[in-house]
Structures are given as structure tokens and as C-alpha cells.
């Protein structure tokens, strides 16, 4: 099995290093790692945030372990050279259509949530965000209009696109509490009307899963008012961008949350995917040993589960993380003094 | 001065009745009220959620006092006959391009917020949402695609549209804490790129206002993590729909929040506008005297301020509401037993 490792910018390299230490400690057989440049660092070295060598390496792999991209020094570059284009490029080039973002509080760490403890304790949801369509990848540009220059973007979803992400979400709900909330804006958008019709159709194949629909404005409200009502949230690319970040913020511990972006291609033991912590490159604390590697380590667990068929080891890592988090070792983000390395070491110590 | 009163569906009529009682108690000279049907009730009586008589009445008025629309009995109607089309129709036909939604906790009622009290106490923001453009009013439809039926919607903003809403927001910020956060998704959308460029240009005319930009995903996160950082949030129609509801949910007291939707037309003493509580029609409690009329009464205060130039009376109502809320009279939504009418009476009692 081949893993492409793309540490990227900011704290990406230091948290990825800890994931790799954990992977090493598991001594899995027949694993080959390749490392490539992505993001601002790739732009500086190769003139492009997603060099073709990096893309080829990712394509040839069974899974991609991704750090973070984003570099303030690149802020004034034209959009196509900016670090975030690397992640958009990987998603489209690799056909990563299904973004899974679990958001759940960690026992004992409810206090990290900005919500009242009784609400925070109830959060245990999974956002399934479509990642290859919507207004992200439609035609777009600038044109002249009666009101001067006009920026425009085409939003759309077709049946095939909604079907495949709906299947992903229903299957995920089956493995959880069997409740699926599809979020759209069907009272205004034609894109959403088709979205909803297809989701309703696919639901016939999952009679054991309870489906409901919510408008995105109401969902944003409910995520704050009573997040415990959600199990799986299925939504499009744009609404998913907003709601998944909102859900993470409700949990409160941005440094602890992981994500998977899955493609259609099957590997020998699972599904091809890209795995990344949701925290981003955090340039303000990069290189200081202050970053929490837990999100990166949990991304590795998702990689082992979804792409390498290693459920046992994934669970082992997740338990080790949970035990570490309830212990004495705390990083700067949790009010402690443990360094990135020390937290990584502690997780490894708890692996068994 | 003429006010068109459109009570609408659900709890709309009963909360509007209390606003009118308050208006009556102020004994303002030269005021004429007209009442019209809108929403589900209008569909049932006239076959259309926004009958042309209602639209004409609104057009002829200096301000519109709006209750709520939405009726579960209309859920299965084709979209163009559904109650919410009435509000979309009013916005576009009357050119109501600027939606102002203040979100602030009421002293003593921080506990209504799902956020921790120290965060809830800090919330005092105004969302300025563009209301006549974006993906709401672009071309839209269904077409065949390689992936089957495809729903599509065109998103756009031109310079003139952004300029006028930016002026509204900068002027509002000037009267508040002089901080403006423009929210967009300029790293992905051309619509947002133009949006941001225009906002930056207009900012030159308001050197006393501090401007920053935030991506919508980050804004959704920050609204939960530290809502106190915001003064005025300026954003487009779609993001504004989501963020303004999220902001209301953070305050917690949906039954207490009002909104104004302003047009370009100047009245003798202010700006033409439509005023509505943000709570919606709440069909589950309609007709039971359980609805809190405070949001409707505060909408009347906004009407007096923005359309009738009655700042004194607006402030008078707002103080009366604040005094009522800190008193003993509590409605069902605040854990008390006071009826809609009793709360209205109490506000009138506190007017002086
Ligand atoms: C960096 C940006 C283009 C990206 C997105 O909008 O998808 C990010 O916010 C995310 O959610 O991964
Ligand atoms: C009813 C609906 C069309 C409307 C909107 O999306 O604008 C509502 O959510 C609002 O915010 O007033």
C-alpha cells in the first residue's frame, strides 16, 4: 500500500510528523510512503501550489495524508497561485467527492465548547459534504452589466452527483444512529429542488434510516440551539463549507477534529481518500511546537479505516487519543504546556 | 403618513395586533393604516400569496408593517404559490435591498442564549444583508446534463448592487462602534471577488470605520466562538440568510428580535421600508395567545425610526420593552405564563 504524504504549510509539517510517528509505531507491513510539496511551499519551490509531480504522486497512492495549506506571504498572489487552490485542485483532479467531518465533543473536554455544557455534551454528528460540484466548480467569471462590472458563478447539481453523495451519507447513517438530515435551500434554489428530489428517491433504498430536510438557515440556527438533534448532516459543497466549520466551532476544539475526503476509486482494502486535520496552517504558531497534533493523528486513523481497511488500528489510535486527552498532558490550546512532540509521544505511549 | 399592515399567517396577526396597540397608544398625528392579505391566507382568499391589491397598497405606503408568512397547509403547493414567495416578491417588487437585523442580548436575559454567559453577554451586532440580488434572484431552472436532470441557479453581484448596500453598512457602522466585517467567499467565488473589490473602494469614503474581510466559513465559526468581536456584518443575500439566523440563535431569544428591509425610495421623513419580526409564523402555537409580541413591537420601533423619522418614539418603545423584559411579566417562551396581550399591555404600561 502507498501513502502520499503532503505536509504543506504552517503547522502542517509539524503535526504530520507526529502522525507519521504514530504510523511508524504501529509497524504495519507493506507500507510505502512518498512525500510531496503542496501549497505555499510548493509555489515557492516549483512555481505552482499543486505541482504535477505532487498530483501524480497522489494519484498513484492508495491514500493521501495531508497537513495544511495557507501562507500569508502568498495572500497577494493571483488566485490560481494561492495555496488554497492546491486543495481545490486535489479535490477535483482526484475526484474526491465526499467530505466526511465528524464533530463530537471529547469526554471531559466539553468545557472547550462555547456552548453551555448541557448542549456541548450532546454533540455527536457527522457532516457529509459534497466536494466536487456546486458553485465551487461551475463556470464563473466577470462580465459587464448595466450595474458595471459583475462577478458571476454558476451553481448546479445533477442527479448523478446527488445520488452518489446521498449513498455515502445514508451508508454512514446506517453505521451510526440512523438519522439523516439533508440540508438545502429548496424554497429558493432550483439546485436544491433537484437535490431534495434525488435524496428523497435514494431514501427508498434505506428504509431503516430516518430522513428529514432542513433549510440551511434553519440548520445554522439549530446547530447552535440544539446540536444534539443531529446525527448525519448531508449537504452540498457551499453549505457544507459553512455548516461543517460551524459544527466544529460548536465542539470548540478545532485542534482535535479530523476529516476525510473520499473518491470513487476502490483500493485493495478500501476507498481512495485524502485525510486532513480541519485546523488549517495556523501560520501564527508555526514552528513553535505549540500545535496540537491530535487532529492530524485522528486523520491518520480515518485513513487507516477508510483507505487501508485497518479498522482495528484506527480504533486503537482513537482510544489512545481519548486516553491522552483525559490525562495530564495538555497542549497550549487546552491550557497546558505540552509540546507537539510530547503530545505525539503520549499518544504513542497509550497505543496498545 | 401611510402604513400598510400585512399581518399574514400563523402568529403574524396576533403579534401585529399588539404592535398596533402600541402604535395607537403613541397617538401620532396624521397616520393612516391600511390592512392587506399576504402569504397562505392571501392564497386561500385570492389565489395568490401576494395579490396585486396587497402589492399596490404596499407601494403606496411609506412603510409596511409585516407579521409573518408560512402555513403548513400550503407546503405541497407549487413553489410560486407558496407563502414565502410573498416575501421574496415584496423584496424584489418594492426594491427592498437592505435587510438590517440587529442581534443583541437583553440585559438579564443572557441565559436564553445557548452560548456560555460570558460569550452571550458580548453579543451586540447588526447584520446588513443585501436582499435584492445574489443567487436568490438570478436566472434558474432545470436542464438535461450528462448526469441526468440538473438544477441550476446563477449567482452574481455587480458594482452598483454592492455599492449601495456597502454604503448602508458603512453608515450603520458609523452610528455604532465603527467596525465593519464584510463576509464573502472570495477564495472561491468571482461574485465575492467583485464584492470585496467594491467594498474596499467604498471604504475610502469612510476612513473613520475599520473594515475587515472574513470568509463565510470562518464567520460561521467566529459567530459561535467569539460573537463579541462583531459590530456590523455586511454580506450578500445567501450568506446573510444563514449568518443572520445563526446570529439570532446565538442571542437565543428568537421571539425578541426584529428586522427592517429598506428600499431606495425616500419618504417625507425617512426611507421606505418593510418591518418584520424574525420569528416567522410558528403555526404550532398560532391562536393560543402564547406568542411573544416583543419582536413585532420592536419592528414597529424600527419602522418609526427608519421610515417615519420618529427616533424619539422608537427609543421610547425600546425602553418600554427593555423595562418589560426585566420585570415580572414573562411569556411562555421565557418560562412564564403571560399571554401575548398581557405582554403588549405591559409594554404600553411602560411607555412614558
Ligand atoms: C480553502 C477553501 C477553498 C476550502 C473550501 O472552501 O472548501 C476550505 O474552507 C475547506 O473547507 O476545506
Ligand atoms: C422564506 C425565505 C425565502 C427567506 C429567505 O431565504 O430570505 C427567509 O429565510 C428569510 O431569511 O427571510
TrEMBL record, chains A, B:
<comment type="similarity">
    <text>Belongs to the isocitrate and isopropylmalate dehydrogenases family. LeuB type 1 subfamily.</text>
</comment>
<dbReference type="InterPro" id="IPR024084">
    <property type="entry name" value="IsoPropMal-DH-like_dom"/>
</dbReference>
<keyword id="KW-0464">Manganese</keyword>
<feature type="site" description="Important for catalysis">
    <location>
        <position position="185"/>
    </location>
</feature>
<protein>
    <recommendedName>
        <fullName>3-isopropylmalate dehydrogenase</fullName>
        <ecNumber>1.1.1.85</ecNumber>
    </recommendedName>
</protein>
<keyword id="KW-0432">Leucine biosynthesis</keyword>
<dbReference type="InterPro" id="IPR004429">
    <property type="entry name" value="Isopropylmalate_DH"/>
</dbReference>
<comment type="function">
    <text>Catalyzes the oxidation of 3-carboxy-2-hydroxy-4-methylpentanoate (3-isopropylmalate) to 3-carboxy-4-methyl-2-oxopentanoate. The product decarboxylates to 4-methyl-2 oxopentanoate.</text>
</comment>
<comment type="subunit">
    <text>Homodimer.</text>
</comment>
<feature type="site" description="Important for catalysis">
    <location>
        <position position="136"/>
    </location>
</feature>
<feature type="binding site">
    <location>
        <begin position="280"/>
        <end position="292"/>
    </location>
    <ligand>
        <name>NAD(+)</name>
    </ligand>
</feature>
<keyword id="KW-0028">Amino-acid biosynthesis</keyword>
<feature type="domain" description="Isopropylmalate dehydrogenase-like">
    <location>
        <begin position="2"/>
        <end position="347"/>
    </location>
</feature>
<comment type="pathway">
    <text>Amino-acid biosynthesis; L-leucine biosynthesis; L-leucine from 3-methyl-2-oxobutanoate: step 3/4.</text>
</comment>
<keyword id="KW-0560">Oxidoreductase</keyword>
<feature type="binding site">
    <location>
        <position position="101"/>
    </location>
    <ligand>
        <name>substrate</name>
    </ligand>
</feature>
<feature type="binding site">
    <location>
        <position position="217"/>
    </location>
    <ligand>
        <name>Mg(2+)</name>
    </ligand>
</feature>
<keyword id="KW-0479">Metal-binding</keyword>
<dbReference type="Pfam" id="PF00180">
    <property type="entry name" value="Iso_dh"/>
</dbReference>
<feature type="binding site">
    <location>
        <position position="241"/>
    </location>
    <ligand>
        <name>Mg(2+)</name>
    </ligand>
</feature>
<keyword id="KW-0100">Branched-chain amino acid biosynthesis</keyword>
<feature type="binding site">
    <location>
        <position position="245"/>
    </location>
    <ligand>
        <name>Mg(2+)</name>
    </ligand>
</feature>
<keyword id="KW-0520">NAD</keyword>
<keyword id="KW-0963">Cytoplasm</keyword>
<feature type="binding site">
    <location>
        <position position="91"/>
    </location>
    <ligand>
        <name>substrate</name>
    </ligand>
</feature>
<feature type="binding site">
    <location>
        <position position="129"/>
    </location>
    <ligand>
        <name>substrate</name>
    </ligand>
</feature>
<dbReference type="GO" id="GO:0003862">
    <property type="term" value="F:3-isopropylmalate dehydrogenase activity"/>
</dbReference>
<keyword id="KW-0460">Magnesium</keyword>
<dbReference type="InterPro" id="IPR019818">
    <property type="entry name" value="IsoCit/isopropylmalate_DH_CS"/>
</dbReference>
<feature type="binding site">
    <location>
        <position position="217"/>
    </location>
    <ligand>
        <name>substrate</name>
    </ligand>
</feature>
Amino acid at each position: 500500500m502507498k501513502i502520499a504524504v503532503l505536509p504543506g504549510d504552517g503547522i502542517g509539517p509539524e503535526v504530520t510528523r507526529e502522525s507519521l510517528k504514530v504510523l511508524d509505531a504501529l509497524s504495519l507491513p507493506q507500507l510505502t510512503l512518498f512525500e510531496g510539496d503542496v501549497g505555499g511551499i510548493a509555489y515557492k519551490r516549483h512555481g505552482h501550489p499543486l505541482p504535477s509531480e505532487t498530483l501524480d504522486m497522489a494519484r498513484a497512492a492508495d491514500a493521501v495524508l495531508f497537513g495544511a495549506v495557507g501562507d500569508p506571504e502568498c495572500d497577494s498572489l493571483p488566485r490560481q497561485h494561492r495555496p488554497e487552490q492546491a486543495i481545490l485542485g486535489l479535490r477535483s483532479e482526484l475526484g474526491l467527492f465526499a467530505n466526511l467531518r465528524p464533530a463530537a465533543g471529547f469526554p471531559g473536554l466539553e468545557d472547550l465548547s462555547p456552548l453551555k455544557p448541557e448542549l456541548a455534551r450532546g454533540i455527536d454528528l457527522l457532516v457529509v459534504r459534497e466536494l466536487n460540484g456546486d458553485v465551487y466548480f461551475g463556470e464563473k467569471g466577470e462580465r459587464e452589466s448595466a450595474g458595471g462590472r459583475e462577478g458571476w458563478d454558476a451553481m448546479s447539481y445533477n442527479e448523478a452527483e446527488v445520488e452518489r453523495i446521498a449513498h455515502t451519507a445514508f451508508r454512514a447513517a446506517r453505521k451510526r444512529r440512523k438519522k439523516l438530515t439533508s440540508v438545502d435551500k429548496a424554497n429558493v434554489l432550483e439546485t436544491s429542488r433537484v437535490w431534495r428530489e434525488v435524496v428523497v428517491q435514494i431514501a427508498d433504498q434505506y428504509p431503516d434510516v430516518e430522513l428529514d430536510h432542513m433549510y440551511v438557515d434553519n440548520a445554522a440556527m439549530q446547530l447552535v440551539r440544539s446540536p444534539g438533534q443531529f446525527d448525519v448532516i448531508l449537504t452540498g459543497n457551499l453549505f457544507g463549507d459553512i455548516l461543517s466549520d460551524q459544527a466544529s466551532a460548536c465542539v470548540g476544539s478545532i485542534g482535535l477534529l479530523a476529516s476525510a475526503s473520499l473518491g470513487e476509486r476502490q483500493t485493495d482494502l478500501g476507498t481512495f481518500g485524502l485525510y486532513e486535520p480541519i485546523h488549517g496552517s495556523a501560520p501564527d504558531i508555526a514552528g513553535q511546537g505549540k500545535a496540537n497534533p491530535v487532529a492530524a493523528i485522528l486523520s491518520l486513523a480515518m485513513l487507516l479505516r477508510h483507505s487501508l481497511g485497518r479498522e482495528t488500528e484506527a480504533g486503537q489510535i482513537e482510544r489512545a487519543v481519548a486516553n491522552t486527552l483525559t490525562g495530564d498532558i495538555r497542549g497550549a490550546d487546552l491550557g497546558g504546556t505540552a509540546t507537539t512532540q510530547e503530545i505525539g509521544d503520549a499518544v504513542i505511549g497509550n497505543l496498545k
